[in-house]
Amino acid sequence: MTEGVAGPGLRARGFVESQKLANPDSPRPVEPGAAPPPPERKTLSRWIPALGVIVAWVVVWYLTDGKDTLSLPGVARTALHDDLTEINNDLLAGRDTNPVMLFTGALADALRSLVEMMQGIFSKPNLPRPVPEIGWLGVTACSTYVALVVANWRIALLVLASFLSFGVLGFWEQSLDLLIITGISVVIAVVVGMPLAVLVGTSARANRAITVVLDVMQTMPTFVYLLPVVLFFGIGIPSAVVATLIYALPPIVRIAGFGIREVPTTTIEATDSAGQTYWQRLLKVQIPMARKTIIVGLNQTILAALSMATLASFVDGPGLGKPVLAGLRINDVGTAFVPGALIVVMAVMLDRTTTAASERAEKVARGGGGDPRTRRILLIGGAVVTIVAVYVSRTYVDLARFPENTLGSRIADVVNDVMDWITGTFSGATGAFKDAITNGLLNPMESVLAESPWYVSGLGIAALALVFGGLRAMITTIICLAGIWYFDLWHDAMITLNMALVGTVLVMILALVFGVWMARDRRVDLGIRPLLDAGQTIPPFVYLIPVLALFGPSRFTAIVAGIVYAAPAAIKLVADGVKAVSPTTIEAGRSTGQTTWQEITKVQLPMAKGSLVLATNQGLLYVLAMVVIGGLVGAGALGYDVVYGFSRSEAWGKGLAAGITIVLLGVMLDRITRAAADKRRDDPGPRRAFFVRLPIGPPK
Amino acid sequence: MRQPAMSTARSRGARLGVLAAVATLALSACGGGSIAKETEANEKKAAAAGGECGDLNMAVNPWVGYEASAYVVGTVAQDQLGCTVNYKELKEDVAWQGFGTGEVDVVIEDWGHPDLEKKFFEGKGDGTAMDFGPQGNIGIIGWFVPPWLAEEHPDILEWENLNKYAKEFATSESGGQGQFLGADPSYVQFDEAIVSNLDLDFKVVFSGSEAATIEAFRKAEENKEWVIGYWYEPQYFNAEVAMQRVALPPYETGCQDDPQTVACDYPQTELKKIVGTDWAESDSTAVDLVQNFTWTNDDQNVVAAYISSDGMSPEEAAAKWIEDNPDKVEAWLAQ
């Protein structure tokens, strides 16, 4: 049906890939393709004015050091913050009368009873029954069977193994809770998101408007909106579902909308000439033709939901996030590690299942799908086994409640021993490394950024935005800076910005080293990619503790956590970008006898510049998102303000102001880097590859 | 071609059926107790528990000592009164919001939150929460240094001498001044004001969480590093490393009323129980239990150490303490 669009060898691998699927004409998704303009000279010409701005800035800083920095002590607040706090108090006081609050309250009750009903069926004792309606054996059998139906036997085995690991490692109930929250959020995200995606895909104006909202939703660090969500939806399940929904909605709207928009106009015109209505066109042509991209969007939405549902444990959301958080509270890596690893297992399971399901759907649509008779037997046999399993799991306690064992706690002990050894052995070296980076890079940059008068820093940032991103980027930057100034947290914002910048520099160093290495050696790629996948999926709290043990409470600790969070995405982008450099270009270079070093620096990296800038963009946003969590480990600044506002009602307004400030910083950084990326290239490229959650999985 | 395929299919189907039957038998043989029996037992137990307890929504604030109190009360309520106990891991502020909606019934260890009392207590706020009396623990907040430091420089335990050592406390985070390790943002604290009002050459760097502070103290004691920070008692970690308190100008009534001008030490706090008004007026049998509950700092430290040092789950830790202290538990259950 869509021969050219979706070749059989291509797998749905995420947004960047989906662009490739949808644009067979533009040969490479990230790399600008053949013959980029000579980048060397352009780079030079941009860095000279930038250097000029920086030198002027440093001179002014030196002369005015410490004046008008707008610094505000950690637990101090301004009148504006108190006004914002009043909003919170008023809403809280009016929760029995305010119609909006009544509405969200009713919604919250509905969500709560829905989730509690599902918990009674799958995860929690449905009193007076001592166990859920369907025990572990039944749930495992059902899930395996579903995997068999929608995908294939290999995926069914994967699902079976995953569910067994939930139970064997001792987190059956929490795992099922996490799946329930994720599942409900995804269903709502699809119900709400698909109509929006159709709007985005069919109307240019709606696309522009919705994109702005999605940008904000995706820049806002997840921690920030937990605060207002709790205000409107209350503690626990409802807030967990709503926060997860907010985080999971953008991918499906963006990617499905993209898929619908990219259906070739010729096809639409051809079918229009047959006199079809709007609905016929939508349901018979656009959506079916965009199906593959829509599934990619669904996949991304599921993974986003999973990661946010984990974070929702901060507001007492049920699931695997809770034991992870408990481990953080008692400072026990091992306790947090096992549920953290199960989250990775779950992510891999969901990712592979949706991918395989879409492949199978594709095959069936093409008339493939294997021998129907064998399949029918398999399905009937599976159904019988499943029904039996459900029945016995409703009858016998041991088949309903997963038998206890000590494997999970033994693994936790081993992890703790390993961590103790690492921190005991290396904490001297890591301390020295921390001090070197802090004194050599972090502190000097922070002095200039945060200890200059605010108008000097503002001017400097705007000038750099002009140099790197052009006039439009500068205008956005000025608006964002004005907002930051208005919310009274300028000094903290500069410190946080500095942390994000230093973190991104380190991320890019890692991305260049590992990205190039992976691109040049497939075995390295195969070896490293699972680690990157795990780094992307594992909840940040898990590695917060060991990082803390190695580096102590400091800004650097937050930066390291940010690097762990951001590096996988950046490394993958660079690796894929470098890999995509056309082999003929490399061959041509080799024939002139260039060295490996020359090949990398003169050919591969310059030609992959588009993906380097994209990686920088993603790196900045990921690191910025993590810097908030850094408030928990002594990084201070905006992260601390958010945590502070979240935990003390009299400072609620300050927390909100800090949250908004982070969004403004994110939008600013995103616009500058994106404009810088666009400026470099003539082709349209993946301009909308904004804060994509990169797909996980082995290299192509 | 067709015929043999069909027969294979049929025989395979038959084989599957047999397999399923065998599996059912095998599983039922090893399946253990029957769920129907346990359901019946549960129903009987609920009926026999005398008076309905119903749900008990116990907030769990983020420090281990709190967790110890919460799970001990919760375990007693569950095992002896037949309550369904829901533990909700929440920060203090969020927990107080839940009294009004019935999402939270009990905050078992409150360190004093005047602003929250203003919002939620009868007479000052909407009346959804009420004070349920002291829970027996005495809270001590203050500035602490690791024991090795107190031993080698005994004069450091007086605040007047802190400036003398300020340079030693400097870190990469403190910009040339001494570093003072501030606490989790949700705790009651005035350290920035104290530092500036006593003219101390220190900068408050917030550790951000109990875990981060413990990690810093532990490392400092091991490697003889200079650390001073906000710390408190009851706290299980003091059994591992006996943190030493630095004397600040003594607390007098009212000296902490204006957060900006605080220049005195923290008072000793009688920790108390806060409960939802509606729940307290209900006929739940757990109301009396929570009202009667008191224990000592030592009791709490024992349970907290079970949880954090011995790696027990909070439920196990609570159950072990309850088993070891039947007389105390009995007193809470007396009418």
Write the layout of secondary structure elements.
The complex is a heterodimer of chains A (700) and B (335).
Chain A: H1 15-22, H2 39-64, H3 79-93, H4 99-122, H5 136-150, H6 153-168, H7 172-202, H8 204-219, H9 222-233, H10 237-261, H11 265-272, H12 278-289, H13 291-311, H14 321-329, H15 333-365, H16 372-393, H17 397-400, H18 407-451, H19 454-469, H20 471-486, H21 490-520, H22 522-537, H23 540-551, H24 555-579, H25 583-591, H26 596-607, H27 609-629, H28 637-647, H29 652-680
Helix pairs in contact in A: 1-13, 2-19, 3-29, 4-7, 4-10, 5-6, 5-16, 6-15, 7-8, 7-10, 7-13, 8-10, 9-10, 9-29, 10-13, 13-15, 14-15, 14-23, 15-18, 15-23, 18-21, 18-23, 19-20, 19-29, 20-29, 21-22, 21-24, 21-27, 22-24, 23-24, 24-27, 27-29, 28-29
Chain B: H1 2-30, H2 35-48, E1 55-60, H3 64-81, E2 84-89, H4 92-101, E3 106-110, H5 114-120, E4 129-145, H6 147-152, H7 162-165, E5 178-182, H8 191-197, E6 202-206, H9 210-223, E7 228-233, H10 237-240, E8 244-246, E9 268-276, H11 277-281, H12 286-292, H13 297-308, H14 314-324, H15 326-333
Helix pairs in contact in B: 3-13, 3-14, 13-14
